[in-house]
Amino acid sequence: MNIVGTTAAPSTSSLAWMPPAVLTALAGSFLSNLTGQFVGTNLADIQGGIGASADEASWISTVFQVASAAGIVVSPPLIRALGLRRYLTWATVVFAACAWVCAIAGALPTILFARALQGFAGGGFGPIAFTAIFMLCKGPRLPFGLAMLAFVLIASVNAGPVLSAPIEAVFGWRGLFVAQFMASVLLLMAALRWMPPSAPIDRVPLKTDWLQFALLSIASGAVFLALGQGTRRFWLDSSVVAWGFSIAIGASVGFAFAWRHAKAPILNIRTLTSRRFGIPIALNLVFRASFATSAYLVPLLLAMNLGYRPLEIAHALWWLLVPQVIGLPLVWRAMQVHDNRVPAIFGLLLVALGTSIAAYSTSVVGAEQLRWSLALIGIGQVFFLVPVLLIGAGSLTPEEGPTASIAFNLTTVMGTVVGTGLVSHFVTEREKYHSSVLVEHITSGAAQQSDRLASLINAWSMRVGDDALATARAVAQIGATVRREAWLLAINEGFALIALVLIVAAVGVAMIGRSPPLPRASEGTPP
């Protein structure tokens, strides 16, 4: 289906004309992405609440991501067999029940089991929204339906830390899961009220090649496991990460063999390698790495510089979220005037500019100094993903729907995980390098540093009245300064790396080919 052509595109002045079922499906996608960020941004408080180590608590996020990959992969046959209403209802019930179990659980194994089930159920929300838009947004509704999907996928990730921090501050870490439960109940009520009735269960789609689905699920999940635990466990030095990569490679080879000899391959390779779909999907994977800015670099910078807590970081990230709401009608207008590649390239360059500005941070930079940088990143993300999604989905046929759904949703989740994992590894290694250089510099300037150390010892001695204790505290103060400066330099280089990658990605947008502007709303078109 070509969404740029004979039908006029609707205005964004109102959502009243959109089918309530589509809004419900989008709400499910928003909920899954939103709650996926709840745990990661408040992991330290959850860890303390259940008495687990940092390494043990990290699995609460990892198992959710691994299970989400499986939920995404197996969703196409389940949606065809069960129907949108039945599948969304069942998945929401499981999601809500698991959230409640996590809220009342007191042991890590119980939470891990519930989070795995919750991740599998939540993994289907994205494909449900993708499918609902194509099924229920016909003609002039389709472009704006896809634009809303792109916006939901961006805003939900950035809204996670913004909303979770005040909830955790008021109700504690268990309140995070209670909030998920309450939101799931509302989603369930909306699904029962507005999703179109499902036909009787069709068992034909279930008679598929489940070996292909199993191998692709294992390969995707193993990649998520390895990337999620890589930096924390020093990558291949850990048997867990090594086994994760080994399983991913083995399952990928097995999937390729099964796909090659299958009578009904689950993925359409021509769709994945086409210029109009393949390049946007690859760009989506690369672009999602930019979310490492808000998910990792900015929180780390504010915590290292000024000791920000999650609630204070959440206040700072409002400057990322609000411009995205403002940017949606602006990018829609731009897509009606220009070749759709123009706003996409403009968006990438805005994000690159915002991260470049952040790359000049100093040890006194706080939330106020990052406002313009975050605003540019936020509005740039909307300007990129909305037109790229419309370009990629514009030529899809119904037969290509399952392939597109799996590819788009996997790259959406995987891009964020890959970006955060690789950027965190890069920053950690660069911190080690800068720390060694700074220590060597301090050592080489022995006379100057001795004077500085003596001055600090005198200052501390006047406070504590003990020379030995004063010396220890002076040395610790210098060491803390060195570590802070090393982390600052490494974080700035992380910002610069993301900016460079996005500038290079802008070339990929140009390679997509001409993408005519969307037709403006004509008389009689729903508002």
Automatic annotation (TrEMBL):
Residues 21-517 form the Major facilitator superfamily (MFS) profile domain. SUPFAM superfamilies: MFS general substrate transporter (SSF103473). Its main location: membrane. InterPro entries: MFS, MFS_dom, MFS_trans_sf. Signal peptide: none annotated. The keyword Transmembrane helix applies. The chain crosses the membrane at residues 87-113, 144-165, 171-190, 210-228, 240-260, 281-304, 316-335, 342-360, 372-394, 406-427, 494-513. Keywords: Membrane, Transmembrane, Transmembrane helix, Transport. It is found in: Membrane. The keyword Transmembrane helix applies. It is a multi-pass membrane protein. PANTHER family: MAJOR FACILITATOR SUPERFAMILY MULTIDRUG TRANSPORTER MFSC. This is MFS transporter.
